[in-house]
């Protein structure tokens, strides 16, 4: 009788251990299944190009649009330089006759600077109102008398993280040339 009870207890414990083993096996299978799903998820490459593109696109756009704005600024600055240089050269060779009035010298300088900026196409229609021209005429109309022409143009650039309002300044000094 004692042997029967012991054998039944052993059988019950074996059954219990079998069910625990089944539970452990199911838990292991569940872990392996989760691991397999995770592995499939990490190995899945679909959509990776889209994610990379979305990460790189803002940087690319910043570089392209910023480069375009810098190109525009350089082009306008070059036009301002060219107009100021041409005005200075003209006034060196052909000074305003019998006048030391800064307004008359300024009008001659405007005749060169404003059309040069207007030909650029990036400045806008109201170039004459935007550009500020300052002329310091010579003290007397003699050979080698110095004068200066200064032109300032306000410019607005749309480059992120860079100040929006710029002022382009060009100044040239000339001397009245005397011919033979």
**Number of DSSP strand runs:** 3
Q: What integer value in Å does the Rg equal?
A: 42 Å
**CATH architectural designation of the domain at 55-175:** Roll
Sketch the major β-sheet.
3 strands, antiparallel
The CATH top-level class label of the domain at 55-175: Alpha Beta
The name of the CATH topology of the domain at 55-175 is Nuclear Transport Factor 2, Chain: A
Structural class: alpha+beta
Order of helices and strands: HHHHEEE
Strand order of the largest sheet: 1-2-3
The number of helical segments is 4
Report the portion of residues in β strands.
15-25%
- Which overall shape is indicated by the principal axes computed on the Cα atoms? rod-shaped
- Overall mean pLDDT stands at 83
Low-confidence stretches: none
Annotation keywords:
Nuclear Transport Factor 2, Chain: A, three-stranded antiparallel beta sheet, 15% strand, 180 residues, 62% helix, single chain, alpha+beta
Topology summary:
Blueprint: H1 2-43, H2 48-93, H3 102-120, H4 127-130, E1 132-136, E2 146-156, E3 165-175
Antiparallel strand pairs: 1-2, 2-3
